[in-house]
Each structure stands twice: as C-alpha cells, then as structure tokens.
C-alpha cells in the first residue's frame, strides 16, 4: 500500500485531532459524549471549547496511552504545528507554529514559541528537549500570546502541565523494551499526606543503541544513540484552606552520541562522500560527535485565595543548564569541519498574578521579572585544521513587564476581551575571537564584558477579542493579537562592527476569526479558525561564511502569512473516537532587503509547510470485567517546506538554490495495541505493543547549507527509523 493510499484510508475513517483525546479532566455534560478538557491558557481554568482562541490540548488519557513524556513528537498533532530537532542536536527543538519560527537555535537567539512547564518559562531552545515522567496536559496555543505570555511567544506557546501530589498513597511503574536495544523505566510515587504536606516523586531512565553504524572512527562506532535520565520532586504544603504552596525540583541529563550529518552535496574534497537524500544505515566521519545536556531547576508557586478579590499567585523559578557538544559538521571521513560548544546558562524569573471575577468582569493582572546569563566556549576547525579559531561569547538579559487582561460580558452571549502588556528589556554582549596559528593566537574580536553599550527595547503588546455565544454548543469569535520576538546582538559574528550591530525586535499582528461547536448531542466537536499574520522587522537567520562558520539574524523586512485550521472530534459510539486536524498555510515576503535590494519574490519562506494533516483512531475492541483492549493509530502528514531563506532562482554562482534544502513531504504512522485495566491483586496492570514510524519514512527533515566558501557543503538529517517494542505497566 502506498503512503498516499494509507493516508486516504485512515483519514476517511477519522474525524478529529489527537489533541482532543477521549478522557479529560472533567466529565462531559451529556452521557456518552466527548469529555471536556479544562485548560489554563488564559491564566485561569476554562473549558477548552469556551476559550476564544485557537488552542489544542493533549489530555491525560491521550498522553498516558501513547507514553508521551516530552514535546518531541508533537509535529503535526495540532494544525500548523511543526516540531523538528536542530541537526545533530537531538535535545534542541525548532518549533514552528503558523509559520512563525526561530530557525537557528543558537543559545543567544530567542525562540518564536514560548515553552512553559507549570507556568515557568523555558527561555532557550538549546538543550530544552527533556523528559517529564508524569505530564497531565499539554496545551498548544496558536498565534501571538504577547499580552499574557510576553516576549518570544510571537508564534504561540506550549504549556506543559504536570500532575500534582494527591496526598494519597499510589503510583505506577512502567518498563519498555524495543528494537535497537531500547530500554526505558518510568515511575511515579505519591506518598500519603503527612500534616500539611503531600509529596510526589517521578522519573525515568531511557537508553538505546545508535540508529547508525559508524565505520573507521576512533571515537565511536554508533550515531544517534539515546541515554537520558530525568527526575522530579514535588512537595505541596497546604497550611490553610486559603494558601497552597508547591515546590518543584526537576533535573534531566542527556549524554549521548549526536545525530550524524549526512553529506548530500559537496564539491572538491567532499565530492566523493556525497550520499543519496535517503537515510543511510552506515556512515563514516572522523571526529567526535556527541552532546551532553544537563538541565535542573527549582520552582516555588504560592496560591492565596483572597475571597472576593480573587486569587493571588506567585511563581518563582531558578533554572540552570550545562551543555556541551562536539560535532563533525561535514559527516565525512576527512577532517573538514569540526565545531564544539561548552555552555553555561542560568535564568531567574518572578511572576505575580491576580485573577478574579466581579459581576460580569473576569480579570488577570500581573507583573513579571526575568534575567539570564550565559557564556559559551566555541572552538572550530576547518579544512583539515588549516583554519582554527578560539571563539567565546557571553550575554545577559534583564526584562520587566506588567500586564492586564479583562473579559467583560456585555450581555449573557457577548463577551469583550481586552489586554495590554508593557515590557522593558536590556541586553548585553561580550565576544572574543582569535585565529590560532603556529606563532600563537591572532585576536580578531576582543569585546570584554561592558565594552559594548547595552541594547534596550520597550514594547506595548495589545490584544482584543469579541466572542458571541449563540447557544451553549456554538460560539464564534474575532481576535486581534500582537506579539514580538526580542532583538539583540549577533554574538558569534566575526567582526567587531557586526557583533555590536543591534537587530530589532520582530513584531507580528494577527487577525483571527473562528468558531467552536458541539454537535450531535456532543458526539461531534468541530472547531475552525482563519487568520492573517502581518510581520514587520522580520528576523531571519542567514549563514555568513568567514573566519568561522556562523549564522546571524538580520531584519530582512516584512512578511504576510494566511492560513486556515480545522479540528474535529467524532465519538459515534462509546467505544470509538475518531479525530482529524488540518492546517493550511500560505506565507510570502512583502519585503526582503538583501544588500539594499528588495528580493522578496526570490526568497524561500522557511519552515512553513503548506499542509499539516493529522488523523487518529482510538477503538475499544474489547471491554470486559477482566480489562479492555484498545487499538490506537495516529497518522500525521507534514508537506514539504524550505529550511533556508535561499534564492528560489539563483542569480550568482555563489548562491545555493532553495530547493536543495527543501524537506520532502513527511508521513508518519504510529500504532499501538493496549491491554489495560487488568486486575492483579490490589494493582492494575497494562501491556502495550507499539510501533513508531511504521511507514519507515527515510526522507530528510532538516538541512544545513554552508555555502560556496565551504565547498558547497549541504548536510541532511533524518527522522528516527521504524521502531517497535512492548511496554508493561503497573498501577497501585
């Protein structure tokens, strides 16, 4: 069966997205209908179907059945959502929502999608793909979230919400085994409440051999292995009925072989090593190829019930990261290009929120402070060691914000929402770059801390929504929202002038209309949204060859993105849930200035697949006193997209055509057979047989182009091959 036939066959049977899973936080109003999901996208609890923004939510049942512990595999599971990893760095995501993306995950660049864990902002993409053993819900907010979430949520936000301590003895343990010697052990333990305290422990360990065999390399014989550990301690204190304190410590460590580069284009000494644009099982490279990421953090959330005044919440968080890698950039047995990083990063944030209701008015008021500090050692070697550099850079950020959002019910059916956020931020940079020669280092850039005046930015981000409820099962809305991605310095530039040149914040205005509905006695939910993004001071990552390989951000100009999103969930019987989601995008540059020339009509629009389609089936084939058997199938399609804003038609021999770094349409099929609710003594057991990427997609999902200075090198990276295995779980 071809991929096209497989897509059509599954899509024909499915109506809904996997994000509206069958079991949720609150029971449905109608017996046998689709259960409700409660979300906190607007900083207060609301029914998902009542929130007047485009939002999807992975419910507890969906996450549990599919053993999801991170955002790694969310690509295509919400309309116009695309999640990839950055080249060989398997712990660093590139997240695109509605075509909004930061295509370069350098640690001093800011993301376009805000990622939050229990309200704590995860500021950097580098090293941020880590596991959380017990997730309750993942919310995908599409479109700018500048008012409530602030800077760097210009494309949207991902909220990860963990299960909180229950105060009752219970827990679960799950063991998995699969091909490539995959092993995972995951568990949680809830302890009985003692006094005012409740304690919960959770964590997991996962290991797997590499997907690639590496020949002739003295450092390793495998590529893209897995070795991760994560843990979380959650302590809840309830000193009174009005006050709840939640302390969380989490840690994750990844220490593994990175994904190998596969050279698909090159000239000169690289030409003999050009491989097909399909994933190879055996590769050859000459250098180390590993990554290490350690993330840990402390968070304290205090919630105080003030009675008629509402609820006052404080979220205090400190997070740190150690990260290092060494990558063979060319993926060949010759020492052509090697780069490594050794990073240290920390962030601190403090947020105060007041949420409440008085009469017809709901309100959210808040203040926010954020600071970070990072430093990176970044040596590089090129052309068999003929060009070696000692590069270092550091950066800091301090940001203050105040925000307010009000929902006012003009009538019982008509609600007006308005909000504003004011942000002030200051950034600094330091940079050292030297060419290493036999006679010693030759300093090229030397900008110590304080040598460069700080960059300062201010922004007011508004939002306004008008929502009308025709009846409890059908509502419509129109929304305007503004978001922005912070400006800053290009810390890895090779000249003093380029390091000190400030790029401006990118601003996006989004206009959106949509409706949400419950039909067929709540057995069908259908949600539709249409939007237009108008982007100014568009930030684009451009590779600049020079003394060292580096990409810089430039304010290329203006862009417009239009799209439509459809999400549906059908539950024709109590045993069957069918789901589908469709996203359509059309993006284009309105202005793209390159050396003073507007080349908007001849540049590729990046990370914006025209179509994202997802379908899911969850069928309870057997339900009996001894347990039940579920068949689950998830299919996602992401159409082709460009990775680099390169020329569509080359006009100079030094240019690389965009189609050389265009990822093909990607179709992923996952399936599992879940035998659950098996009573064993006082416990409940489950057994799952699972398979991922069952169509064995072999086409690349990421490219890096190094340009003519580096012998026209283009390297490709690929999704994981077909994997399968078994999981056995026990709950008590």
Question: How would you sum up this structure, described in words?
Answer:
Helix content is 4%, strand content 59%. By secondary structure, the protein is mostly beta strands. The strands form eight sheets. It has a 25-stranded antiparallel sheet that branches. A hairpin with a 2-residue loop joins strand 25 (414-437) and strand 26. The longest helix has 11 residues, at 3-13. The model is unreliable at 1-30 (pLDDT under 50).
Q: Percent of residues in helical segments?
A: under 10%
Number of strands: 44
How far the N terminus sits from the C terminus, by CA atoms, comes to 43 Å
Helix count equals 4
**How does the helix and strand content classify structurally?**
mainly beta
C-alpha geometry: globular
Strand content: over 45%
Q: Biggest sheet, open or closed, and with what strands and sense? A: 25 strands, antiparallel
**Whole-number mean pLDDT:** 92
Uncertain stretches of 5 or more adjacent residues: 1-30
Radius of gyration: 25 Å
């Amino acid at each position: 069966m071809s991929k096209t036939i497989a897509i059509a066959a599954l899509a024909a049977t499915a109506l809904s997205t996997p994000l509206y899973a069958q079991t949720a936080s609150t029971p449905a109003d109608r017996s046998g209908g689709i259960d409700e999901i409660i979300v906190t996208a607007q900083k207060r609890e609301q029914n998902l179907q009542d929130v007047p923004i485009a939002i999807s939510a992975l419910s507890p049942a969906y996450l549990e059945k599919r053993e999801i512990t991170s955002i790694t595999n969310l690509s295509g599971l919400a309309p116009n959502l695309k999640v990839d990893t950055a080249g060989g760095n398997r712990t660093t995501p590139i997240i695109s929502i509605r075509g909004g993306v930061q295509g370069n995950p350098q640690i001093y660049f800011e993301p376009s999608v805000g990622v939050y864990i229990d309200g704590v902002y995860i500021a950097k993409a580098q090293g941020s793909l880590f596991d959380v053993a017990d997730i309750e819900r993942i919310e995908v907010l599409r479109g700018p979230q500048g008012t409530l979430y602030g800077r760097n949520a210009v494309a949207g936000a991902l909220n990860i919400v963990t299960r909180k301590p229950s105060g009752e003895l219970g827990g679960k343990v799950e063991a998995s085994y699969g091909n490539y010697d995959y092993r995972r052990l995951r568990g949680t333990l809830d302890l009985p409440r003692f006094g005012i305290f409740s304690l919960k422990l959770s964590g997991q360990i996962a290991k797997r051999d590499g997907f690639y065999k590496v020949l002739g390399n003295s450092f390793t014989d495998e590529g893209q292995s897995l070795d991760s550990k994560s843990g979380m301690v959650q302590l809840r204190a309830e000193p009174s009925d009005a006050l709840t304190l939640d302390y969380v410590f989490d840690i994750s460590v990844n220490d593994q072989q990175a994904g190998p580069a596969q050279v698909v284009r090159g000239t000169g000494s690289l030409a003999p090593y050009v491989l097909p644009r399909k994933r190879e099982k055996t590769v050859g490279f000459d250098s180390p190829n590993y990554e290490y990421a350690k993330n840990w953090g402390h968070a304290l959330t205090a919630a105080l019930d003030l009675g008629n005044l509402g609820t006052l919440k404080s979220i205090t968080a400190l997070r740190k990261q150690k990260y290092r890698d060494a990558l063979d950039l060319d993926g060949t047995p010759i020492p052509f290009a090697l780069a490594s990083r050794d990073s240290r990063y920390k962030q601190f944030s403090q947020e105060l929120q007041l949420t409440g209701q008085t009469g017809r008015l709901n309100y959210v008021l808040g203040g926010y402070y954020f600071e970070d500090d990072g430093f990176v050692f970044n040596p590089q070697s090129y052309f068999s060691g003929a060009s070696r550099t000692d590069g270092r850079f550091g950066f800091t950020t301090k940001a203050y914000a105040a925000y307010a959002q009000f929902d006012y019910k003009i009538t019982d059916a008509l609600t007006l929402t308005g909000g504003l956020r004011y942000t002030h931020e200051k950034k600094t940079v330091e940079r050292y770059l030297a060419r290493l020669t036999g006679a010693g280092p030759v300093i090229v850039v030397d900008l110590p801390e304080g040598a460069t005046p700080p960059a300062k930015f201010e922004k007011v981000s508004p939002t306004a929504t008008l929502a009308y409820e025709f009846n409890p099962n059908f509502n419509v809305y129109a929304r305007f929202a503004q978001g922005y991605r912070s400006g800053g310095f290009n810390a890895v530039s090779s000249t003093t002038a380029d390091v000190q040149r400030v790029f401006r914040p990118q601003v996006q205005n989004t206009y959106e209309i949509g409706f949400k509905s419950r039909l067929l006695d709540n057995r069908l939910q259908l949600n539709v949204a249409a939007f237009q993004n108008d982007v100014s001071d568009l930030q684009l990552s451009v590779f600049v060859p020079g003394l060292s390989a580096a990409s810089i951000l430039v304010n290329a100009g203006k862009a417009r993105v239009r799209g439509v999103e459809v999400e549906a969930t059908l539950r024709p019987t109590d045993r069957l849930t069918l789901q589908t989601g469709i996203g359509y995008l059309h993006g284009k540059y309105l202005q793209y200035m390159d050396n003073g020339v507007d080349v908007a009509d001849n540049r590729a629009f990046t990370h914006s697949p025209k179509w994202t389609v997802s379908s899911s089936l969850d069928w309870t084939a057997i339900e009996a006193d001894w347990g039940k058997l579920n068949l689950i199938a998830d299919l996602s399609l992401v159409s082709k997209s460009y990775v680099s804003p390169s020329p569509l038609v080359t006009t100079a021999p030094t240019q690389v055509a965009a189609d050389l770094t265009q990822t093909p349409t990607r179709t992923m099929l996952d399936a599992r057979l879940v035998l659950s609710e098996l009573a064993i003594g006082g416990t409940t057991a489950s057994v799952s047989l699972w398979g991922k990427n069952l169509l064995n997609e072999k086409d690349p999902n990421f490219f890096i182009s190094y340009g003519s200075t580096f012998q026209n090198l283009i390297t490709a990276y690929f999704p994981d091959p077909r994997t399968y295995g078994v999981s056995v779980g026990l709950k008590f």
